[in-house]
């Protein structure tokens, strides 16, 4: 991601303006005939009246700008320069979009009732302009607050083959399509300040020695230290301390109970000796109700299939007699979560557990498939291994813990901190264990509401913590 850094020492004078909803403008950066300028005829879809692909894309961006603008206040307009361009992609995974603050800013004095920026602390320029009420303009040739890139190969062969953007505004994307509005809202979130940048999450190094405004709120519950008080090496270690890096801002933690569900935990009733663990429910399939009494229990069956790996559930299940009526255990990897769960469902499984294929964290369990009618859950790699080693006669029960919220540690919402570090995803997102699913998780979920605030989302509350 491209980020520029600018230290400004003097303030400009502006006429007084009172606070109002932030105005966000989108500047299409594409050349003629492409992206926003794509003249390909399109049928209006899902409340989007555009009659060309380019018009529909622009309508989606304007809706995202309006949603964010109505939930934030600033006297200064926010300009987004946006492009459709090829981004990294394979047939089964890909970068949908990327965005960031066009500039990071420190040490600007407020005018007209605006406040000074906290000393020697980097802020995304849109946030810096909100706080100071200054139209900070480091380079008149580039009068932008946010840059944003979106993948124009989506759905082509080799790039999440067969998917493609959904341009509707109504949350009704078909199973194979990606909801552009959700992705644009997410990317605008980064550009507005949902990022630890310019501090490097990977190395912990700071730009020009200044912390970013995020660091005072980033707490490592293992060490009890906040990022602002850490060395580079400590920050780099904390960025990989899965489950223990949390957001300790007051505004976000206040709304956790109104946003996040009670945590789902799995008890192994038989055999004894396997500890209770946190699991995560899939974003597809039936909703696992949030009432504490909610429960799924049953005998476990190891599902086998005929693929390269016989335990990844990517092809038809070959032992349906063993799986029918039971909770099927399948490994993560090779194909999407919905493919595995659908295969198990077709074999008669009552529910599915998907064991992670990396040592840290829980599987994200994202995806969409309206044909799935059984519940499914992600479990850790270690728990999956313990269940496989336990042999036959395993009985598990999954239920809500009324004392814990999903996606939190010590009551505070987790930031995404897998080990190994994932460039572009680690640290500057909420953790994938959060449910309800959050806009600023690293991978898109099909059940996002397009709300950026509580009780549907934690993102605006985090923004209030950093000064929005
Ligand atoms: Zn992101």
Describe it:
- 19% of the residues lie in helices and 21% in strands.
- The strands form six sheets. The chain has a seven-stranded mixed beta barrel with strand order 13-14-18-17-16-15-19. It has a four-stranded mixed beta sheet with strand order 2-3-7-4, with helices on one face. A three-stranded mixed beta sheet has the order 1-5-6.
- By secondary structure, the chain is an alpha/beta fold.
- It has nine helices and 21 strands.
- The chain folds into three domains: 4-192, no CATH class; 216-257 and 408-426 and 447-466, no CATH class; 261-405, Glucose Oxidase, domain 1 (3-Layer(bba) Sandwich), CATH 3.50.30.30.
- Mean pLDDT is 92; it is low at 1-19.
- The longest helix has 19 residues, at 53-71.
- The structure holds zinc ion (ZN).
- Zinc ion binds at residues 186, 190, 429, 442.
Number of domains: 3
Mean pLDDT across the residues is 92
What's the N-to-C terminus distance? 23 Å
Question: Strand pairing plus helix content: what structural class?
Answer: alpha/beta
What can be said about the biggest beta sheet? 7 strands, mixed, barrel
Q: Helix coverage percent of residues? A: 10-25%
Blueprint of the fold:
Blueprint: E1 4-7, E2 24-28, H1 53-71, E3 78-85, E4 97-101, E5 103-106, E6 123-124, H2 125-132, E7 146-151, E8 165-166, E9 178-179, H3 180-192, E10 218-220, E11 225-226, H4 232-238, E12 245-247, H5 250-259, E13 262-270, E14 277-281, E15 295-302, H6 320-323, E16 327-331, H7 337-346, E17 351-355, E18 376-379, H8 381-389, E19 395-405, E20 408-409, E21 412-413, H9 459-466
Parallel strand pairs: 1-5, 2-3, 3-7, 8-9, 15-16, 16-17, 17-18
Antiparallel strand pairs: 4-7, 5-6, 10-11, 10-12, 13-14, 13-19, 14-18, 15-19, 20-21
Helix pairs in contact: 1-3, 5-9
């Amino acid at each position: 991601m491209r980020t520029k850094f600018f230290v400004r020492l003097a303030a400009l004078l502006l006429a007084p303006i009172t606070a109002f909803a932030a105005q966000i403008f989108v500047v299409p950066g594409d050349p003629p005939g492409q992206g926003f300028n794509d003249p390909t005829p399109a049928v209006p879809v899902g409340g989007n009246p555009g009659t060309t692909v380019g018009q529909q894309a622009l309508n989606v961006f304007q809706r995202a700008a309006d949603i964010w603008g109505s939930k934030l206040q600033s006297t200064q307009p926010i300009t987004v320069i946006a492009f459709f361009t090829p981004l990294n992609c394979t047939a089964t995974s890909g970068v949908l979009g990327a965005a960031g603050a066009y500039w990071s800013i420190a040490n600007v004095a407020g005018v007209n009732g605006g406040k000074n920026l906290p000393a020697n602390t980097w802020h995304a320029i849109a946030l810096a302009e909100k706080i100071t009420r200054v139209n900070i303009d480091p380079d008149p040739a580039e009068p932008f607050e946010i840059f944003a890139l979106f993948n124009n190969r989506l759905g082509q062969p080799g790039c999440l083959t067969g998917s493609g953007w959904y341009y509707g505004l109504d949350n009704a994307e078909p199973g194979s399509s990606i909801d552009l509005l959700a992705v644009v809202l997410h990317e605008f979130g980064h550009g507005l300040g949902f990022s630890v940048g310019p501090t490097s999450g990977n190395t912990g190094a700071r730009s020009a020695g200044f912390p970013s405004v995020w660091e005072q709120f980033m707490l490592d519950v293992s060490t009890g230290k906040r990022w602002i008080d850490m060395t580079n090496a400590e920050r780099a270690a904390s960025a990989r301390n899965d489950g223990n890096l949390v957001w300790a801002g007051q505004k976000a933690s206040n709304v956790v109970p109104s946003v996040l569900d009670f945590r789902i935990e799995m008890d192994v009733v038989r055999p004894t000796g396997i500890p209770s663990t946190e699991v995560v429910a899939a974003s597809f399939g039936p909703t696992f109700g949030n009432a504490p009494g909610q429960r799924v229990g049953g005998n476990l069956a190891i599902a086998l299939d005929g693929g390269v790996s016989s335990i990844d559930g990517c092809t038809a299940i070959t032992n349906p007699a063993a799986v029918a009526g039971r909770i099927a255990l399948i490994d993560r990897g090779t194909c999407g979560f919905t493919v595995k769960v659908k295969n198990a469902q077709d074999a008669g499984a009552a529910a599915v557990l998907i064991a992670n294929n990396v040592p840290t964290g829980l599987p994200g369990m994202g995806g969409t498939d309206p044909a799935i009618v059984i519940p499914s859950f992600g479990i850790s790699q270690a728990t999956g291994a313990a269940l496989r080693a336990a042999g036959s006669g395993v009985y598990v029960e999954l239920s809500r813990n009324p004392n814990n919220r999903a996606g939190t540690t010590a009551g505070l919402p987790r930031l995404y901190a897998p080990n190994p570090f994932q460039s572009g995803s680690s640290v500057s997102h909420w953790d994938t264990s959060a449910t309800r699913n959050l806009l600023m998780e690293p991978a898109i979920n099909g059940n996002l509401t397009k709300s950026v605030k509580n009780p549907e989302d934690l993102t605006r509350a985090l923004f209030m913590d950093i000064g929005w």
